[in-house]
Structure formats: structure tokens, C-alpha cells
Amino acid sequence: MVRDCEDRMRTAHMTTTPVHDFAAYTLTHLEALESESVHIFREVAGEFDRPVLLFSGGKDSVVMLHLAVKAFWPAPVPFPVLHVDTGHNFPEVIEYRDRTVEQLGVRLLVASVQDYIDDGRLRERPDGTRNPLQTLPLLDAITAGKFDAVFGGGRRDEEKARAKERVFSLRDEFGQWEPRRQRPELWDLYNGRHRAGEHVRVFPLSNWTEIDIWRYISQEQIDLPDLYYAHDREVFERDGMWLAPGDWCVPRDGEALQTRRVRYRTVGDMSCTGAVESEATDAAAVLREVAASRITERGATRADDRLSEASMEDRKREGYF
Amino acid sequence: MTAATRPHDLLRFATAGSVDDGKSTLVGRLLHDTKSILADQLAAVERASRDRGLDGADLALLTDGLRAEREQGITIDVAYRYFSTEVRSFILADTPGHVEYTRNMVTGASTAELALVLVDARHGVIEQTRRHAALAALLGVRHIVLAVNKMDLVGWDESVFDSISAEFAQFAKEFDVDDVVAIPLSALLGDNVVDKSARSPWYGGPTLLEHLQSVPVGEDPRRQPFRFPVQYVIRPQSPDHVDYRGYAGRVASGTVSVGDRVVVLPSGRVSAVKAIDTPEGSREEAFAPQSVTIRLADDVDLSRGDLIALESKAPVLTSDLTGTVCVVADRALRPGQRLLVRIGTRTVRGLVHTVIDHLDVRTLERHPDPDALALNEIGRVQVRLAEPVAVDAYHQLRRTGAFLLIDDADGATLAAGMADAPGEVPR
Predict the structure, then answer these.
(1) Which of A2, A195, A300 is closest, CB to CB, to B210?
(2) What is the structure's pLDDT at A188?
(3) Do A168 and A237 fall within a single domain?
(4) Residue A163 and residue B80: Cβ atoms within 8 Å?
(5) A58 to chain B, minimum CA–CA distance in Å?
(6) What is the span of the domain harbouring residue A129?
(7) How many domains does chain B contain in total?
(8) What digits encode the pLDDT tens for the residues A251-263?
(9) CA B326, B330, B332: angle at the middle one, nearest 5?
(10) pLDDT at B65
């Protein structure tokens, strides 16, 4: 019926399209995304001298590492991974991180925010959040390691400043992003040329959405930290989020502790990462919850992103992930 | 092909049109009506709209992500948006419409298979409409949708729609696109965007979303010659894979099977495909745009920048690259300029020999012998290459016919290029 109408309409006004039948030669959207990401990894390995991959144990960085393994199989991943450790970690995530790099045989580098606070190079923020403090240790680690390409797990659907960022994003020698001076990125001809001292941030997951990530985790049966799945945990409510108590995150007056069945949608800094109530105990169940959710993952659980309309843009300009 | 037998695939498309045409509203409507805008995003937009003293939610604020864009109320840069339906996922490159942002339109269209061009039903086809359609066609976009917006403001007059679509069809005949479809709609009210409108009983065609869902993705790779730019050589040198030497890349076009006779360019050495490897196991055949690793039967010297093609359908090698470029940097392109040329995975030195002409995108006229091409200008150039490179005609094979001109000093991308058929003598 629709086809009839379409044909009639096209004959009336325009030219007709021949109907192709090459379903067997069409990639599914996940296959297309995977192929694009693998292509990006290989471009970087071919064009740069010293790449490094940012790995936090968070689901996006886990998927990114999984894709890197695929890109170079059967050879090992030809670059190290770097964790910018806030010092506010969930112990499960650190355990997961160490187990994963061990299994894959990749070299792990750690840049520690705590070290910077201990020796006075960084000062704790009044709100106790450490995500914004990651920038300096990250930039120092990039300089010290002479890294010229840094893979990040950022996705354009996460946030509107990210929606404007290139797959290959040039940073000046201060690690800064200048959104108005980005290189146009055409076809799949990524231009990674840069001057000495500059480096390029590379985002192989640029075109993935949160749902795609979960579909892929489910399809590929990728192992994640347990925090991502429903578990019972003592939490308290603040600003509409469920927070777990810890050394850096103490319930204030009127914030009562209670046991809830929760899971985390992101697992960065414990002090500002909230949990959501959930019954999802595997990736397929999480996928169903995420698909039905009416709130983005950052909006739900990241206190730092709520600060201002442009907070991500500001942090990115300064050299954040 | 029915939805039941078709894989859930991915369509990349680009929008073009200015704020006045209601482009941001249409994009907002598509996202909203496909339930792709989440509660907190909508709340943020409503809050920001209120802060600016607006009554309703300004859906344009969803896409204008940078501070300067929100402050000036214009879109500066390409924004990528994502949504999906039961049958297909979409990547939308939302490009600014102003003439000074031609380079962004070119960027957005470079990876798009469909271009959505907006017109205001009250104004019909204007200069900007022609420019957007011409750019999309130049970039090899095969499907164009003319969204005749604001039909509510012309009383859903069928004759207005007919005359606009007829005029556009006439203009579009000059381009090499597979199909052009015109759809009458109202982005503001949602008519014919996702759901069929009761206000246009005279219109028997698809709604915008129906059309986006039915356009075929890509081309049948069996109809294209095989091209494989080598990205990286995989040599594990591990006990399990002592002599393994695989060529990693993404099939740029066509298909390849184990046993196929292939030629490696530019060296011209021939061999046969011994294996096609993926982490999921070896396979008999690979097709575009799969990422795979190819092993060859012979020990040929091969590295990043080389191209593997079927021996029977190989591209020609040329040291004289002629093509149409769009200048994307704030520096003019002039004869005598030395630069780097990037084609596929290969980068070679080049020298701009001639700037052949300047294309006026409004009139499609070519003005010969300009002194230079400035930012956002389009024209044909001839570039001498330091070594021969395999090139295809862009209008036949997009991935191996596209090239970049790069400033050697700071690495800036100067121009985006689309190669003519090699060997064609410039006029």
C-alpha cells in the first residue's frame, strides 16, 4: 500500500528508485558501528607513534578496549592503557581493571589524583567532586609518556558539547580544545597531523549511543564490573540521586541510610556518581531498562554535569576527556 | 524487501536549510516524535528557553551545543544526532545553512547517503535550496528529500506543493542522484513528519520517517569493484602465530573472496587472497564496509598506504590528480602551492599545478582560471603528485575517489577533494 503510493507519487513528481535486494550484503547497525570503530583504531596505530587508551573500568572504556582487541587480533593491543584514578573508586572497579589488563596482557599506567592532592599540586574542591581534578594528572601523564594519540570513550550522544566534537580532536600543547577551530572531518579520511607538543584525542565510540553500547555488551557477552548490575546496597538520597556512603561521601543530617536494590549507570568518582533503583541482573535486562528510561545516564547520575549548561564544554576546553 | 527479512541497519543522513526554514524545529520534531528526546534533555531545553524569555520549548536549543551558538542563536558547527526506530538506526548530521558554513555542509554530506533539504512553502525554491542540493549532489549523496515545510501557512494548498516540487525536480535533473522525493509537511505541528496528516488528503506519498526507513542503505557491493586500502600490518610474532602477516583494513568497495587474484598498488605485484580473517574466525568472502584482515598467498612487500584490488578490475595509477575541491580552511588555495595529498590510507607530496575553474554553486556555472580558491569556495584543481597513486572517479567510488589537501607546516586540512576519472584531460 505504502509502496504503491510511493511509486505513484514518485512517478508523478520525480524519478523512481530501483528496489535493491542486497540484505545479505548489508551490515546491521551494530556491525556498521563496530567496523567503523575498528577502522579508527587501525588508523591511529598506522599514523601515530605513541597512542594510549584511557581505561577506567567504566562500560564505555571496556567496550572501547574490547574493540581495540578485535582491531589488532591475533596480535596484542599495540599500546598501553592509562587510568586517571580519582582516588574515589569503587573497589570493585579497581579489581575489575586489574583483572582485565592482566587477562589481555596490556600494560596499565595509572595517574593518581590523590598524589596531586597529597603533595599540594591540586586542592580538593568544596563540593568534594574529583572528576574535574582529573585534567591536570591526565595532561601530565600525556606529556610524560610523550603520547601523541589518546583514545577516549566519549560518545556524541552523551552531551551537547560532545555532539560537536570530531573523532580526531586536536589538542594544543596545553591540552586544550578550541571548538571554533576544529578541523572539518570528511569521509573517513581522519587527519591526525599535528605539531610537536600537540596531541590528538581520538573517540572511536563517537557514533555509538548508550543503547548501542548495551546492545553490544549483551551481544558480545562482555564482562563488566558487577556494579553495573542490580545488587543490594546501603544508600542515601541526595538531589534526587541514590549515593553510597564512603570516606568522601557522608550522609548529612536528614539523609537516612537505607538498603535498596540498585545498579550504577556510570562508575567514575564515587562521591558524585549516583545509583538508580533496578532489578536488572544481566546486560539484556539492563538494555530493557535503558530502552524504557526517560532520563539520560548523565542526567540521572552525574552531579558534576548538572553544574551549568556549558560545564562539559568548559572542562573539555581545559583539556578534560 | 520487507522489514521482517531486513537487518536492523544504519542510515546516515544530513540536513540542510537555515533556521528560518524551520530546520531545527524539524530535527527536534523527528527526535521528539521518535521518542529520542529524554525527559531531562527536554527539561533542560525548557529551562533554557524560559531563561531566554521564550514561551515554549525552543527545540533548536537541543542541537546548538556550543556556548557561542546559544549566545548568537545560530548553528556554527555540524552536530550529530542519533535516533532509531524498530527497523533502522539513524545518524543525522545537522549542518548549518548559512553560505559561510559551506564547509560544514560539505563535511556533513561527505558521509551521508541522503540529504534532507528544507524549503519554506511560502518562499519556494530559493538560491540557498539550489546551493544545498548542488552541494549534496556534488558530494555524491544519492538520495535527496525536499521537505516542503510550513504547509500550514499556505493552507495546505496542493498546487503550491506541486509547483515547488516540479521546479525542484527540473533543477535536480542536472545532478546525478538516484532519487528525489518531495514531501509536504509542517514541522511545527508534526504533519507528515512521523504520522500521516489528515490535512493533506491529496498527498499519497510517504511521511518523512516512512521514507527515511525505506531508502536502501548503501549500494549493492556486488556491483562495485573491490578496493582495500591497507591501514596496518598485523604481525603478532607470537609462538602461536610465528609467520602470521595480515593486512588490516576496511573494504572500501565491492567484495573479495578467498582465491581471488589481486594486485597491490602502486607496486603492481600480483598475488591471490589466501585467507580473510576476523576475530570471529576466517571467512570465505568480505564486502564493503567490513573491517577484516587479509592474508596473501605470496610474500609481497606491502605496508600502510598500499591498495589491494582485484587484478581484473584495478584502478589506474596517476601522478596528475584532477578533481573538484571545496576549500575548508581560512587560507586560499593557489597555483604553485606545495602540500600533502591524502587518498585512502596514502599520503604523498603534491604541488597545485593549476586552479582550473571556480564553480558558482548557485548557477552551476564554472568560471575559468581564478587566481585562487578561498574558504568555502569550490572549483577544479590539478595537483601534481610526487609519486603515482591509485585513484578512482569520486562519482563512481566515493571512498577511493575522495582526497584531502593538507598543509605540511601545521597539518591543517586545507581542502576536501573529489577526483575526476583519472586520465581525463582538464579543459
Answers:
(1) A2
(2) 94
(3) no
(4) yes
(5) 22
(6) 29-211+311-318
(7) 3
(8) 888 888 899 999 9
(9) 65
(10) 58
